[in-house]
Specification:
Blueprint (H helix, E strand, L loop, with lengths): L2 E5 L2 E3 L5 E8 L7 E7 L6 E6 L6 E3 L7 E6 L4 E6 L8 E8 L3 E3 L3 E5 L2
Parallel strand pairs: 2-11
Antiparallel strand pairs: 1-3, 3-8, 4-5, 4-9, 5-6, 7-8, 9-10, 9-11
């Protein structure tokens, strides 16, 4: 019954933009800290961004600072990741993660940055 469903991934050229969405259901979204992770081929899963319960505090891995923006809409139970100035090294499967009373993961969405 609990679901985290990512969408918005796809193929984009270097320098382009994408916005990922994560739709949550089956739990109290507004009481969970939310995260975006990514995993590139042959690499470990990496924490990309974090956002506090109310959305007032955010953190990013150094490699995406200034390019990515994490946000959330608690009225829509949705998490977002705006990705600008994309680079080939951003190519990965991106995962939505919720941490609170329990921990939940989405299925992932593929982002490919290539010319």
């Amino acid at each position: 019954q609990v679901q985290l469903v990512e969408s918005g991934g796809g193929l984009v050229q270097p320098g382009g933009s994408l916005r990922l969405s994560c739709a949550a259901s089956g739990f109290t979204f507004s009481t969970y800290v939310m995260y975006w992770y990514r995993q590139a081929p042959g690499k470990e899963r990496e924490l990309v961004a974090r956002i506090s319960i109310g959305g007032g505090s955010t953190h990013y891995v150094d490699s995406v600072k200034g390019r990515f923006t994490i946000s959330r809409d608690n009225t829509k139970n949705t998490l977002y990741l705006q990705m600008n100035s994309l680079k080939p090294d951003d190519t990965a499967v991106y995962y939505c993660n919720a941490r609170g009373s329990y921990e939940y993961w989405g299925q992932g969405t593929q982002v490919t940055v290539s010319s």
